[in-house]
Specification:
172 residues; mainly alpha; Four Helix Bundle (Hemerythrin (Met), subunit A)
Length: 172
Protein backbone atom coordinates (compact mmCIF):
# COMPACT_ATOMS: atom_id res chain seq x y z
CA UNK A 1 0.00 0.00 0.00
CA UNK A 2 1.48 3.32 -1.05
CA UNK A 3 0.35 6.18 1.16
CA UNK A 4 1.46 9.74 1.64
CA UNK A 5 2.68 10.58 5.15
CA UNK A 6 -0.62 12.44 5.77
CA UNK A 7 -2.71 9.50 4.55
CA UNK A 8 -0.71 7.18 6.82
CA UNK A 9 -1.15 9.46 9.83
CA UNK A 10 -4.88 9.89 9.20
CA UNK A 11 -5.37 6.14 8.80
CA UNK A 12 -3.41 5.29 11.95
CA UNK A 13 -5.17 7.95 14.04
CA UNK A 14 -8.55 6.68 12.82
CA UNK A 15 -7.93 3.46 14.78
CA UNK A 16 -7.89 5.49 18.01
CA UNK A 17 -10.98 7.63 17.42
CA UNK A 18 -12.22 9.06 20.70
CA UNK A 19 -10.67 6.28 22.78
CA UNK A 20 -8.03 7.03 25.38
CA UNK A 21 -4.63 6.38 23.78
CA UNK A 22 -3.03 5.74 27.17
CA UNK A 23 -5.44 2.86 27.82
CA UNK A 24 -4.65 1.39 24.41
CA UNK A 25 -0.89 1.68 25.00
CA UNK A 26 -1.10 0.12 28.46
CA UNK A 27 -3.25 -2.81 27.32
CA UNK A 28 -1.42 -3.82 24.15
CA UNK A 29 1.33 -6.01 25.69
CA UNK A 30 -1.16 -8.24 27.52
CA UNK A 31 -3.43 -8.39 24.48
CA UNK A 32 -0.50 -9.53 22.35
CA UNK A 33 0.48 -12.17 24.92
CA UNK A 34 -3.08 -13.45 25.00
CA UNK A 35 -3.22 -13.68 21.21
CA UNK A 36 -0.07 -15.77 20.86
CA UNK A 37 -0.38 -17.86 24.03
CA UNK A 38 -0.25 -21.55 23.24
CA UNK A 39 0.31 -21.02 19.52
CA UNK A 40 2.80 -23.18 17.64
CA UNK A 41 5.58 -21.40 15.77
CA UNK A 42 4.06 -22.63 12.50
CA UNK A 43 0.89 -20.71 13.31
CA UNK A 44 2.89 -17.55 14.03
CA UNK A 45 4.82 -17.97 10.76
CA UNK A 46 1.69 -18.11 8.59
CA UNK A 47 1.61 -15.52 5.80
CA UNK A 48 -1.39 -15.11 3.50
CA UNK A 49 0.97 -13.97 0.74
CA UNK A 50 4.74 -13.51 0.35
CA UNK A 51 4.61 -9.71 0.60
CA UNK A 52 2.60 -9.70 3.85
CA UNK A 53 4.10 -10.11 7.31
CA UNK A 54 3.52 -13.04 9.64
CA UNK A 55 2.68 -12.67 13.33
CA UNK A 56 6.36 -13.27 14.12
CA UNK A 57 7.36 -10.45 11.78
CA UNK A 58 4.68 -8.15 13.17
CA UNK A 59 5.90 -8.78 16.73
CA UNK A 60 9.50 -8.02 15.72
CA UNK A 61 8.29 -4.85 13.99
CA UNK A 62 6.31 -3.79 17.06
CA UNK A 63 9.40 -4.31 19.24
CA UNK A 64 11.60 -2.22 16.95
CA UNK A 65 8.92 0.45 16.53
CA UNK A 66 8.62 0.68 20.31
CA UNK A 67 12.38 1.15 20.70
CA UNK A 68 12.21 3.91 18.08
CA UNK A 69 9.20 5.45 19.81
CA UNK A 70 10.91 5.33 23.20
CA UNK A 71 13.89 7.19 21.73
CA UNK A 72 11.69 9.74 19.96
CA UNK A 73 9.65 10.49 23.09
CA UNK A 74 12.76 10.89 25.21
CA UNK A 75 14.44 13.09 22.60
CA UNK A 76 11.43 15.38 22.29
CA UNK A 77 10.82 15.58 26.04
CA UNK A 78 14.44 16.63 26.57
CA UNK A 79 14.67 19.05 23.62
CA UNK A 80 11.55 20.40 21.96
CA UNK A 81 12.07 20.89 18.23
CA UNK A 82 14.47 17.97 17.83
CA UNK A 83 14.64 16.17 14.48
CA UNK A 84 12.98 12.74 14.30
CA UNK A 85 14.48 10.45 11.71
CA UNK A 86 12.14 8.18 9.75
CA UNK A 87 13.09 4.58 8.99
CA UNK A 88 12.20 2.06 6.31
CA UNK A 89 10.28 -0.69 8.12
CA UNK A 90 10.59 -3.11 5.20
CA UNK A 91 14.35 -2.65 5.07
CA UNK A 92 14.53 -3.25 8.81
CA UNK A 93 12.39 -6.39 8.45
CA UNK A 94 14.76 -7.82 5.85
CA UNK A 95 18.03 -6.65 7.37
CA UNK A 96 17.10 -7.75 10.89
CA UNK A 97 15.54 -11.01 9.65
CA UNK A 98 12.21 -10.51 11.37
CA UNK A 99 10.98 -13.88 10.08
CA UNK A 100 13.66 -15.60 12.19
CA UNK A 101 12.93 -13.65 15.36
CA UNK A 102 11.87 -15.30 18.59
CA UNK A 103 8.30 -14.06 19.11
CA UNK A 104 8.54 -14.12 22.90
CA UNK A 105 11.79 -12.14 22.86
CA UNK A 106 10.15 -9.59 20.56
CA UNK A 107 7.18 -9.34 22.88
CA UNK A 108 9.42 -9.05 25.96
CA UNK A 109 11.35 -6.18 24.34
CA UNK A 110 8.12 -4.49 23.28
CA UNK A 111 6.66 -4.80 26.78
CA UNK A 112 9.80 -3.54 28.55
CA UNK A 113 10.18 -0.52 26.28
CA UNK A 114 6.46 0.28 26.47
CA UNK A 115 6.38 0.01 30.26
CA UNK A 116 9.42 2.25 30.59
CA UNK A 117 8.02 4.89 28.25
CA UNK A 118 4.62 4.96 29.94
CA UNK A 119 6.32 5.30 33.32
CA UNK A 120 8.46 8.16 32.02
CA UNK A 121 5.48 9.95 30.47
CA UNK A 122 3.58 9.62 33.73
CA UNK A 123 6.29 11.18 35.84
CA UNK A 124 7.50 14.10 33.73
CA UNK A 125 5.83 17.49 33.92
CA UNK A 126 2.66 17.12 31.80
CA UNK A 127 3.49 20.45 30.14
CA UNK A 128 6.33 18.61 28.37
CA UNK A 129 3.74 16.55 26.46
CA UNK A 130 3.37 19.68 24.32
CA UNK A 131 7.02 19.50 23.28
CA UNK A 132 7.41 18.61 19.64
CA UNK A 133 9.79 16.89 17.30
CA UNK A 134 10.07 17.36 13.57
CA UNK A 135 9.61 14.04 11.81
CA UNK A 136 11.52 13.82 8.53
CA UNK A 137 8.39 12.74 6.63
CA UNK A 138 5.40 13.80 8.72
CA UNK A 139 6.61 17.13 10.09
CA UNK A 140 5.87 18.52 13.52
CA UNK A 141 4.59 16.03 16.13
CA UNK A 142 4.03 16.74 19.82
CA UNK A 143 4.60 14.09 22.45
CA UNK A 144 0.81 13.89 22.87
CA UNK A 145 0.45 13.30 19.11
CA UNK A 146 3.18 10.65 19.17
CA UNK A 147 1.27 8.88 21.95
CA UNK A 148 -1.90 8.87 19.79
CA UNK A 149 0.05 7.62 16.76
CA UNK A 150 1.54 4.74 18.70
CA UNK A 151 -1.90 3.81 20.08
CA UNK A 152 -3.24 3.70 16.53
CA UNK A 153 -0.19 1.75 15.39
CA UNK A 154 -0.91 -0.80 18.14
CA UNK A 155 -4.52 -1.21 17.06
CA UNK A 156 -3.56 -1.52 13.41
CA UNK A 157 -1.19 -4.38 14.11
CA UNK A 158 -3.39 -6.03 16.74
CA UNK A 159 -6.12 -6.26 14.11
CA UNK A 160 -3.67 -7.70 11.59
CA UNK A 161 -2.50 -10.31 14.10
CA UNK A 162 -6.09 -11.27 14.98
CA UNK A 163 -6.91 -11.71 11.28
CA UNK A 164 -3.78 -13.75 10.61
CA UNK A 165 -4.50 -16.10 13.49
CA UNK A 166 -8.13 -16.49 12.45
CA UNK A 167 -7.17 -17.18 8.79
CA UNK A 168 -4.30 -19.55 9.52
CA UNK A 169 -4.99 -22.92 7.87
CA UNK A 170 -2.51 -24.59 10.26
CA UNK A 171 -4.78 -23.76 13.21
CA UNK A 172 -7.91 -25.10 11.51
Amino acid sequence: MSETPKQYTDRILSYVGDDDPWTILASTPSRLRGLIAGRARAQLEFKPSPERWSVIELLAHLADAEVVGAWRVRSVLAASGTALQPYDQDRWAGTFRYASADPLQSLDLFQAARSSTLSLLGRVDPALHGNYGVHGERGRETVAEIVRLYAGHDRNHLTQIERLLAADPVAS
